[in-house]
Amino acid sequence: MRSLALLAVLLAAPALAQPAVPEPVDSVDPMIGTGGEGHTFPGATAPFGMVQLSPDTDTSCEIRACYGHAAGYRYEDPTIQGFSHTHFSGAGHSDFGDLLVMPQAGSAVKLEPGDPKQPGSGYRSRFDHAHEQARPGYYAVTLSDSGIKAELTAGTRVGVHRYRFPAGQDAHLLIDLRSSLYNYPGKILWSGLHLRPDGTLTGFRETRGWAPGRKLYFAMRFSAPLADHAFVDRDEAIPYKGFQGPGRGSDALAEKLGKALEARLDFGRLAAPLEVKVALSGVDEDGAVANLVAEPGDFDAIRASTRAEWAAALGAVELDGPAPIRTSVYTALYHSLLAPSVWSDADGRYRGPDDQVHRADGYTFRSTFSLWDTFRAEHPLLTLIQPERTSSDVVRSLVDSQRFSPDHILPVWQFAGRETWTMIGYHAAPVIADAYLAGVRGFDANAALDAMVASATYAPYGGLGEYMKRGYVPIDKEPEAASKTVEYAYDDWSIARMARALGREDVAARFEKRAGNWRNSFDAKSGWLRARLSTGAFRTPFDPTAINYGSDYTEGNAWQYSWFVPQDQAGLFRLLGGDAKTVAKLDAMFDYDNSKLDYSHAEDIAGLIGQYIHGNEPSHHVAYLYVYAGAPWRAQERLAQIVGTQYKPTPDGLAGNDDLGQMSAWLVFTSLGFYPVAPGSNEFVIGRPFLDRAVLNLPNGRRFTILADGLSPTNRYVSTVTLNGRPLERTYLRDSEIRAGGELRFTMGPVANRAWGAGKGARPYSLSTSGPR
Amino acid sequence: MRSLALLAVLLAAPALAQPAVPEPVDSVDPMIGTGGEGHTFPGATAPFGMVQLSPDTDTSCEIRACYGHAAGYRYEDPTIQGFSHTHFSGAGHSDFGDLLVMPQAGSAVKLEPGDPKQPGSGYRSRFDHAHEQARPGYYAVTLSDSGIKAELTAGTRVGVHRYRFPAGQDAHLLIDLRSSLYNYPGKILWSGLHLRPDGTLTGFRETRGWAPGRKLYFAMRFSAPLADHAFVDRDEAIPYKGFQGPGRGSDALAEKLGKALEARLDFGRLAAPLEVKVALSGVDEDGAVANLVAEPGDFDAIRASTRAEWAAALGAVELDGPAPIRTSVYTALYHSLLAPSVWSDADGRYRGPDDQVHRADGYTFRSTFSLWDTFRAEHPLLTLIQPERTSSDVVRSLVDSQRFSPDHILPVWQFAGRETWTMIGYHAAPVIADAYLAGVRGFDANAALDAMVASATYAPYGGLGEYMKRGYVPIDKEPEAASKTVEYAYDDWSIARMARALGREDVAARFEKRAGNWRNSFDAKSGWLRARLSTGAFRTPFDPTAINYGSDYTEGNAWQYSWFVPQDQAGLFRLLGGDAKTVAKLDAMFDYDNSKLDYSHAEDIAGLIGQYIHGNEPSHHVAYLYVYAGAPWRAQERLAQIVGTQYKPTPDGLAGNDDLGQMSAWLVFTSLGFYPVAPGSNEFVIGRPFLDRAVLNLPNGRRFTILADGLSPTNRYVSTVTLNGRPLERTYLRDSEIRAGGELRFTMGPVANRAWGAGKGARPYSLSTSGPR
């Protein structure tokens, strides 16, 4: 994959004219989201790379304070603790931060990170943003306490460090295997360090973090020979020491095992910068060595090839527009291309959901599936711009995960091959259905459907037994029952869609019926989605503004969740009393006076516009619902409001957790002018563009151009739309129309066109009105 | 291997006449050594089986009290806690006791073992020896508290339980993954349970016991369907709980991970006995399932095939003599055939010293190498009676272990593929040399020699750097320096022997020189082996009776260690002043008045005859040294003294730890009339027989018969010896003479024949007198 992508870039390069604007790769600012609550990381990674080599400014957080350091780095922190090799991009919960490396200069090597408030108290160092640089695949910083210049780059399974030590001082590296993100006491189960005769340092760590019993292996090679080393166990209370191996009286061992290990590596005085190349593996230490060998080249070579990979990946979309929006959208595209990340070794082996080693035969196994977030826009975006390279791998990874899952269901929130049981639903189903219906192939579709059905019928999971019996999840049996009922019903619809396409009519009929289960939890009288008891009654007391963990809703309330019927918004709107009442309720949501509400107890609630909460996913499709109600112009206003307030090309430029690309994919689609409200319908609902011009360079070689004539802050309304020169009266695009290539031309104006899209026939797919199409 | 051995037995069976005496397999009493300090286990195992399924009477021991329960079972204990699947036979230190299963009857299932002093306080049960039976491959006991009859059998990689529950009571099994031998706090690092859709229960446990970070996987199948189950985590202080998986509100999960797991399995009321078949694997859970499938058959089938395997293995030696000695020696032979045990899976994969999975190509990987003990007689015995089936596997396992060792040296004390760094020396060297020089093939001899040299020259190990520099290990740099110096010198000699045979003259010369290093630690003035300082002076104060851990000697003192020059006893005796002074010193050792000595602080010191300590290995060759001093008759007296006092056909019938067969192999050889004093010389020193008749059924199809005419308690002296009818004047046999088949005939008498073997030319190999032969 890697070499083919690179080749494409190299072949394309001579034909490109000298650009007037920065290259896409130079328009990305990885610092966006590293402040505020974006939880992105600024370090070096390749597209979908296994390695995310990035600075950690603090890992010593207490339980609640961990949240802010979910990606290790916070823009406002004054010190760097070290550089570790694994990070999530925008997760709410966290883990990772594996294999922390910190360079040290001089004679005294410090073994504790020290207090950030007391400079010099440990190995951490101050830094400032003036001496820091972040680009796709590259990060550099000067550590002010030691004067060491640190540079990081990464390939698919390798990270490379380059350290320039002050002249005349001894060079050391400290590796702290105790360091980790969300490092609750007892998280580190076991770890090991091995110095091989050829000077390769290998090791592993096993943690009981977010993913229980996760194993990670590594291999490191150095550009200069080791002068000396020490492997030390910092466990202060070891009940079981075992017998002493070779090296008695010295810490220069070939092997050290324990729960609190550090390695001190001494290189003496160096004439040239020290390069450290590190490979990871989820399989074993030999796998890490093989991954290291599979990506040859020094720091500059890896940096150059990864830059070329990023240029190729970002080249999927050409964007013209003012620099701020261009930076925001290219960075969003960059953030959309980080997960699901590579998890199999170069030889195809990977550690699966059963903690056993399997081999991905003819594909690359991916993990880091934040599916409750990413089924919405992140996966449809990948399916559109990377159908072969990514989505087919994704589907195969999901289906093989189901095969090897102890519960035999598709991933819910998986990373490093392991299930975490975070969030709700079986949203791998719409991801697979959307990909298959969009023409993605390369997997056994019937086996995939079987895996989807297995997940949707596994009684022990999330109240599914009750759901299948009653048609809704009862809140006295299962928490977050209201959210589960509507999300299951949507997932069920996606299964029916795929079954219909495969001619599996029995499955289709069964799941089409389940797709209507959202009605069983909807209180038509009050107009709210509500949790029902097993008696059938709605639970009281009921407060549509309440947000609590373990309540009737998942990270949200009735205001957000009452809109979640992507498969049948028309059916919902009829229950609400028709278009006008629906538009009024949508307006009430956006215009809600939230000044007296306090949601600070709920970590993921950020980016509020009334009761619309852009910082979390349940709201993400809501602005587009005006289109389903015949008022696209109102959607255009709301989208301007959201883009204008929730995204900025600055470190605090994301309104909430990026959630492995979902927040960013929303911006990519929205800036192009359309959005996948109902993945599986294979329709994109038209909003309004935010770029003067955009071109999708599709993998089939075709180009789909989007033009926004007259776009300006005042020209915020869509006056007319043409597709390939012909007026487009409907308010959605079919994915086949995009894939065919062509031109979507918006004419923007200062006045709302209330006629366009108002008719019933113009509206996007809804099960009860459109049926199969 | 298994099926071939079985076939051989089946083919042989019809030709056998009805025996007048019990079959060898019925002469074995596995209870021998389960009392006293033998540390053997009474449970079920196949020859060299991976599974040792045996009752544990107590696992809740404190650190020092653990010693007595090194094999889980003590004959004098009143209760059984459960049946676990892994045990060492006779180890001094311990570990194992994996996967404890306990049946329970009735409605209330207990989750804690309870206090042995308070019957009914937990799931442990009382039992009595009248309702207990132990045979090779079979164990049965009635649990008096519940009335459940438990039977155990085992194949190579499987154990099978059969439980008869009292009529009308519900049947349950409790699996306690917290239970372990030498269960220091913090030993259990991680564990898991998986219930597969087909009803197979799989799981794993990772421990930081004797072998750090040891992983064991298992798979279990049941003859009756599971009615219900619960996986529970008994960890009372879990800092990191993680998210909840499917099965919320119930413990009937598909998966449970944690550090203190138990499984409750409910079968309801059963009409037939419940059979539980369990396979182990060091690789992964799928490996355990495959191992389960690889050995088909129910309890009775496995029991029968393992009985046939034992009959074949024990058939290597036919023994005629009075029942007590016959029972002792057949049981000793049985104990000699337990380790090194199978560690690779049925498909050849195994977890090696680097904790990575490798594949044994064309052989079966063995582990449980107690080499400091077993190089003496256990391995020479296996090389004699099982050269292909065992010793070639053993050598390949040792050499591959060196290849994958983090330190790239041969095993020291290895089990489950992992190094424990217990005891001293590189005694894999004489094991390999002795096997190669005895004609064992099937391995790359030059690669094996390279591995031996690598081990003998690895400076960080056990003071070897100093040893290579000075010719002795200085006690101020390294503990147990006196013992290390002499043991290294012997190992060096074995390397020289093998190098000479391979034509590697440079290696041979170098190590023949090192073979003389024992002289550098020998105080010729006092006649003692003593520890020297790096200044060259002997360390003072010096007490030849002192036994302490970390002292100048390894589990011994100058009395025992001053005799350790197996490669050059003649050289030693010259230093001692000649034959007469040597015999006097040997007599002084045996006749020493030890009534005022207290060695109770040293765990392994048992079986004292003066300063001769038969319960520990450094003394094992000493009685035979009279032969080297020209006084075979005196050896004959001492051997009668030892056999008569140190072995009994009773539970307390072993004088000390059996040490994975070494104590037993000593008896097998000694009872036949000869002993391998210097493995690598390929000579057996003649003592005296203790059986009327014995036949070695050699694997090459030849028979070597040993007859003891006139043997009786008073006829304790060897009057004459003939080999194949010709008088044998020398006091040793060559291994080639045994392998050729033939007849060794002793004529026993009441009076010592002081002439036989007195001449210099009659004596066994010594480097300085015999040179290479």
From TrEMBL, chains A, B:
Residues 28-281 form the Glycosyl hydrolase family 92 N-terminal domain. One of its GO terms (biological process) is glycoprotein catabolic process. GO terms for molecular function: carbohydrate binding; peptide-N4-(N-acetyl-beta-glucosaminyl)asparagine amidase activity. It comes from the Bacteria. Residues 288-750 form the Glycosyl hydrolase family domain. Keywords: Hydrolase, Signal. One of its GO terms (cellular component) is cytosol. Residues 1-17 form the signal peptide. InterPro entries: 6-hairpin_glycosidase_sf, GH-type_carb-bd, GH92_a_mannosidase_put, GH92_N, Glyco_hydro_92, PNGase. This is Glycoside hydrolase family 92 protein.
